[in-house]
């Protein structure tokens, strides 16, 4: 029987939002009393977005889904699946998806599959995979899917705090897309470990073993990449290139930008070790002394790390660096992080350079769940241009944010901390600082029911690129 799969399933449209307020990482270094350069050079972070108590996971998702629908003129009746990936849990039973139903039920749409998925920063990828799987399944009814990923990434005072951030991304998924998922090219690695987890349900903060989380991330990357390479070679046996050479762009989950640069170098190390010894000296001159290293012995090896970062710096510059704009300016968004990197790559690359190219994505969620997969970009200029035109607002919106002092940031963190799960509760965070069109928390009543309102879209914010169409 002929398979009636829809063709070219992928991302038709994508929208990102981030907090309107940020703290400067240089100022945070001084405030935290750490050595100058630790956050900016050591971690590679310039700014960190944060939310006051006016925003929560529901409001972020309402804002981003509403924006996606409005800006792309999508009729709610054309959506048949809505998935949410998040690790920002404010209710142990009621899903964020059910809150988002407010945007659909008012248009008579209640036949809408999908629910929330959680595993640290990986939930968004699971939501996206579920959406693609639905469209390629016998359950598909011809409508489109939306995968949402959103989080508020906050850490207790201490060395992890500068690796926070927040944001939300909504992706419209369907056939004939400009960003197409390569079929049969998903490589997954999952394990049990306690590198980062949130066992205290009364707190927004994770318990985190930072060094272990980085080792787990790298080990997951090694495993996913080797499997991805294997599947790639099986799928395209006649393709002349393998490994990094076969990819035009590589984007990663970005807890902090320096880790991404190290990750690209790590893929270089994998390629090096998977190349026969005689070819190595030609392809990778100067790295011979690492011929006998074993991947599993190198997680803490600074010599290897330094040598491969240097050797693969031009590859990093060419294939990954452009993906780090939002990650550097906003910080770790958790589930949306890897997709913010995809958006950054798209908006920082000339359209002609994108047509027909293949981009690999690495998604990592502590605990742990990880996948590497790839998308290929359409060769159809018009189709791609439509997607890129809708992303023109991102850079002006980043520029239009308001800088807060580390003192203000710290005070707002304390307010969030003190009032987490309080009921009844009236948030005190300013509404005036929010971007036009943002949903915000109006109040929480005595039985914990949350009410949201929306900031009007003012002319000022329209010129800042936040318009709704
Ligand atoms: N100038 C330049 N670089 C500096 C300076 C300075 N003055 N001071 C320190 N550095 C460098 C360090 O050498 C180090 O770089 P290196 O690892 O390349 O050598 C880097 O800055 C960070 O310094 P550390 O001392 O290693 O930082 P610390 O241990 O205090 O915290 C950490 C870093 C572990 C990442 C912490 O922020 C954390 O726990 N974050 C949350 C966990 C995390 O993000 N894990 C990643 C995967 S899981 C996830 O996504 C949540």
The coarse silhouette is globular
Determine the mean pLDDT. Answer: 96
Strand order of the largest sheet: 5-4-6-7-1-8-13-12-11
- Count of all domains: 2
How many strand units?
Answer: 16
Architecture (CATH level 2) name of the largest domain: 3-Layer(aba) Sandwich
Main CATH class of the largest domain: Alpha Beta
Total number of helical segments?
17
β-strand amount: 15-25%
Main sheet record: 9 strands, mixed
Outline the structure in words:
The protein has 469 residues and is an alpha/beta fold. The chain has two domains: 10-181 and 395-464, Thiolase/Chalcone synthase (Peroxisomal Thiolase, Chain A, domain 1); 187-379, 3-Layer(aba) Sandwich (Peroxisomal Thiolase, Chain A, domain 1). Helices cover 38% and strands 20% of the residues. The protein contains 17 helices and 16 strands. The chain has helices at residues 25-32, 38-42, 57-71, 96-105, 123-135, 210-235, 257-273, 277-283, 302-311, 313-319, 325-330, 337-347, 351-354, 381-389, 394-399, 406-419, 459-466, and strands at residues 10-17, 21-24, 47-50, 79-85, 116-117, 144-153, 165-174, 179-190, 196-197, 207-208, 249-252, 358-365, 369-377, 402-404, 439-444, 450-454. Strands 5-4-6-7-1-8-13-12-11 form a nine-stranded mixed beta sheet, sandwiched between helices. The chain has a three-stranded mixed beta sheet with strand order 3-2-14. A hairpin with a 3-residue loop joins strand 12 and strand 13 (369-377). The radius of gyration is 22 Å and the shape is globular. It starts with 9 loop residues before the first strand and ends with a helix. The structure holds acetyl coenzyme *A. Acetyl coenzyme *A is lined by residues 35-38, 41-43, 121, 159-160, 163, 196, 208, 210-211, 213-214, 217, 255, 258, 332, 366.
């Amino acid at each position: 029987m002929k398979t009636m799969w829809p063709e070219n399933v992928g991302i038709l449209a994508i929208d990102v939002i981030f907090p309107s307020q940020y703290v400067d990482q240089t100022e945070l270094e001084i405030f935290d009393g750490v050595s100058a350069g630790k956050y900016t050079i050591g971690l590679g972070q310039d700014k960190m977005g944060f939310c006051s108590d006016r925003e929560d996971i529901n409001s972020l998702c309402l804002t981003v889904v509403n924006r996606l629908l409005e800006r792309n003129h999508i009729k709610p009746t054309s959506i048949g699946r809505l998935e949410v990936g998040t690790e920002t849990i404010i209710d142990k039973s009621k899903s964020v998806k059910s809150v988002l139903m407010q945007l659909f039920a008012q248009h008579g749409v209640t036949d809408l599959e999908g629910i929330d998925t959680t595993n640290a920063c990986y939930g968004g990828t699971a939501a996206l995979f579920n959406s693609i799987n639905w469209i390629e399944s016998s359950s598909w009814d011809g409508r489109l899917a939306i995968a949402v990923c959103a989080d508020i990434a906050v850490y207790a005072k201490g060395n992890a705090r500068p690796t926070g951030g927040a944001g939300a991304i909504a992706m419209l998924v369907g056939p004939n897309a400009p960003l197409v998922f390569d079929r049969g090219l998903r490589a997954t690695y999952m394990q049990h470990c306690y590198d980062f987890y949130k066992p205290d349900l009364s707190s927004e903060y994770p318990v985190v073993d930072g060094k272990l989380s980085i080792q787990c991330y790298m080990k997951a990357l090694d495993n996913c990449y080797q499997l991805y390479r294997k599947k790639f070679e099986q799928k395209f046996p006649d393709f002349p290139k393998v490994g990094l050479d076969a990819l035009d762009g590589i984007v990663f989950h970005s807890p902090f930008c320096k880790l991404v640069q190290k990750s690209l170098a790590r893929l270089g190390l994998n390629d090096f070790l998977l190349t026969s010894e005689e070819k190595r000296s030609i392809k990778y001159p100067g790295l011979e002394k690492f011929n006998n290293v074993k991947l599993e012995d190198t997680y803490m090896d600074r010599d290897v790390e330094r040598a491969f970062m240097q050797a693969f710096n031009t590859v990093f510059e060419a294939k990954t660096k452009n993906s780090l704009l939002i990650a550097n300016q906003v910080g770790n968004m958790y589930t949306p992080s890897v997709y913010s990197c995809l958006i950054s790559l798209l908006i920082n690359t000339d359209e002609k350079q994108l047509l027909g190219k293949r981009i690999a994505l690495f998604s990592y969620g502590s605990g742990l769940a990880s996948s590497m997969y790839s998308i290929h970009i359409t060769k159809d200029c018009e189709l791609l241009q439509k997607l890129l035109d809708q992303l023109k607002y991102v850079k002006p919106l980043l520029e239009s944010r308001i800088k807060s002092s580390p003192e203000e940031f710290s005070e707002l963190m304390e307010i969030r901390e003190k009032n987490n799960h309080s009921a009844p509760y009236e948030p005190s965070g300013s509404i005036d600082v929010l971007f036009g069109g943002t949903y915000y928390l109006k109040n929480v009543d005595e039985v914990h029911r949350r009410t949201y309102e929306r900031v009007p879209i003012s002319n000022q914010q329209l010129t800042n690129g936040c318009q709704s169409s």
